Amino acid sequence: MLCLHITPLLVLVLGVSLGFAFPHNTLRKGCSLFKYKQIMVHEKKAVEKMQKEFRKIRQPGRNCNIWLFDREWMPAHLLVPDRVVLVEAELNFTIMMLQLSTHPGFTKMRQRPLAFLTQAREDLRGCVAPSHQPSRALSQWLQNLQVAMEMENTGCLEDYAIRHVLEVLDDLKCAALQEQCS
Question: Signal peptide: which range, if any (predicted)?
Fold first, then answer.
């Protein structure tokens, strides 16, 4: 009778022990970010065209003071799972901001970059184990992003996101690299 009550406990202890025996800093199986190791030139050109169009329609005189991508650390210094978490957050932010504008010229120019960024976000989903705990630096940045999204003017957030899309692409490339990136 005692054996029946101990068996689930042994299974639980064994499961937890094996969990600690294997590294948690790896990407999940089935997660392939290989295609992002080299961001296609035509994708970058589409982003540059979109940015140029946005500069034409941008409202002058905005007093914005957002510095989300000016960090004391570089994505290259993060472990690969943290890089993926960072890029996923950047993509969520950027996609949300790109979807806000209703200006006809910009709406046309944003279609290709928006499709590419949305596909990249879908490819990243589920790459990191749900139990992964981001580093302290990344956790602080994620919190700063959340605060900025709640406190800042939507126009400033949109402007910031569009000006920094190429940095998001660079961070995506960095996340795709299993080794250090520059």
Answer: 1-21
